Every structure is written in structure tokens, then in C-alpha cells.
Fold this protein.
Amino acid sequence: MHHRRAFLAGAGAVVFAPPALAAGPRKIWRVGGERVKVVDIHAHIAPDMSALIGGTPFQVKSRSNPQITQRIEEPRIARMDAQGIDVEILSVNPYWYDMERDLAARFIAAQNAQLADIIKADPNRFHALASVSLQFPDLAVAQLQEALTRHGLSGVSLGCTIAGEELSPPRFDPFWKECEARQVMVFLHPQDSANATGVTRRVQGAGSLTYVIAHPLETTIALSHLIFEGTLDRFPGLRICAAHGGGFLPSYIGRSDFGCTANPQSCSPNDPVLKKKPSDYMKQIYVDALVFTPEATRHLAAVVGPRRMMIGTDSPIPWTENPVETVLATPGLSNDDKIAILGGTACRLFHIPT
């Protein structure tokens, strides 16, 4: 049945259509002779919300989101089978953080219900992360509770900023407290990164720099605020997974350790006193392994630990054709490490049967 249909997300809609690619058998992966269930924790979908936002600026935002409208024609299940991806965990890129409260409540309720319907149609291949309107933290707590208990969603996804506001202000603490108490995974994904980071002018021109530079930069800044402003100290049990390998932060985290030491005049005496070095918090954060090469994967594992890495593809956008092969070719990983990255950790955190 899987080969006779495919998910296509386009123009703010979820469409079922026959695959354009020739369907083949699902690729099976083994490590040390053991069959591995491969779980992609970074995959996008775009439920059709036009009934609620048709004719409003939010419909324009949903349609203009490049993650939705560009390069997503390839049939999803055929692509999963070709790569040996057994399960995708779907999330929606946010564009609703400046909605007023009543519309945000109705919008999120409808969107999470649609996500639940999608995964119920094929629970062996798809799980989904809830959306919440974090601009209203109390409402976001209620939305998360409903998504987990009523709809059976597997976690929650957030943008790296909330209508231009960082994730670290204390007003968001009730939401972080709920996530910590429920041990729910929070997936952080950048959104309008060029504007959110203030580099719009600098990323114009050749090279797709909005995606190559601005996206990981936004994640880098978001994680840095969560570290330096004490959120991860206030909620040490918080489970956060950052897209795109955690941005640039794992590659240069040593500089963070010496920022205030080398330049004390640049740091306020009112800044929170951290309980450990910034680099130590990297062991507290999960990341996807979307860093493209075995050497980059090796370094990421050295910084965050292989048991805090999970496969991510950015599906249906074809950022990577060989996510599993990249992990298997990474030097220094044991077979147990490879199994954890490919699916073992995700199955544990998202309660997926192995």
C-alpha cells in the first residue's frame, strides 16, 4: 500500500498522489548484523489551514514558506523507501506566532487534529510533533497537553524565535516547566532566519546563503540564549533537539566558554551565573545529524555525544540523499553508537516500537 501513494506537501496543503518515481523495495539497514529501524526526526508537512486563514495575511505566510513551496514534488514514501527511512516524525514550520489569541487557539486545535489524522492513516511510517502558540505561554501549555493526551502526538516543535522574541525570557518558563515535567521532546527549527538574525542584506546574492548561513545561525543564537540566560539551568531535565546539527554552536562552542572571561566588560554583572561551562550544556542538548559528511558527524558526536544525535533529513527537501551511509561511514563510532543515531535514541524518546 505504501508504494501506491505518497505524501506531498505543497502550497500549504497535504495531498495524496501516486508516486512519480518507480516504486522499489524498502531498503533495509543492518549494523553488526542487527536490523535497525531508521527514524528521521526532521521532516516537514503542511496541513491545509485555508478554512481558518483563507484571505488573511497568514495564508500568504503559509504559502510563501520556502520549506513548503519549494522542491517538494518527490513522492515522500518512495523517497523514504529508497533511503531506508522507516519512520518520519513530521513537524510544521511555524508562521502563527503573531496571531491574536482566539484565532491562535482555533488554528492550533485544527492543525494538531489534522496532524493526528495524518499519522493515524499510517502509524507505522509517521509520527508527528504538536504545534503550539507560544506567544501565549498559558495557552501553549494547554495546547501541548491536548496534543499529547487527546491526539497522541509525539512531542512539540517550535521556531527559534517567537515573533522576534528569544525563547529564554522567564515568561516562557511555564511552558518549559510543562515540557520538563512531561519529558516531552522539543524540536527547535529556524524560520524567517535572515530577518530573525538581522543578516537579510548580507545573505543576498549567490550561494543560497539564507539557508546555508542564516538558518544554522538562528539556531546557534537561540541555543546560546537558552544557555547564557539560565533556561537550561532552571530546567535541567528539559529535552531539546536542535535542527541542522545545532547550527554552528557545536563547531565553535569553545569560544563560548571564554566569552565573558576574555571580555568581561562585554558581560553584565546582572547576567545569570551559570552552573557549568557553556560547552557542558552541549551534552544536555539533542541534535539532528544533518551535517552532511562523516567528518562533521564525527566532530558533532565528540561535542554532544553520539547518544544525543538522531537522523534528520529535512524531508521533503532533498538536502541529503545518503543520511544513513554518512553515519555508517563516520570514524570512531561503535556499532551501538550507530544504532543509537540511526533510530535507537529516537525510538526511546518518541516511544516508537523497535
In short: Residues 146 and 285 are 25 Å apart (CA to CA). Residues 1-22, 65-73 have pLDDT under 50 and may be disordered. The chain has one domain: 2-350. The first strand starts at residue 6 and ends at 10.
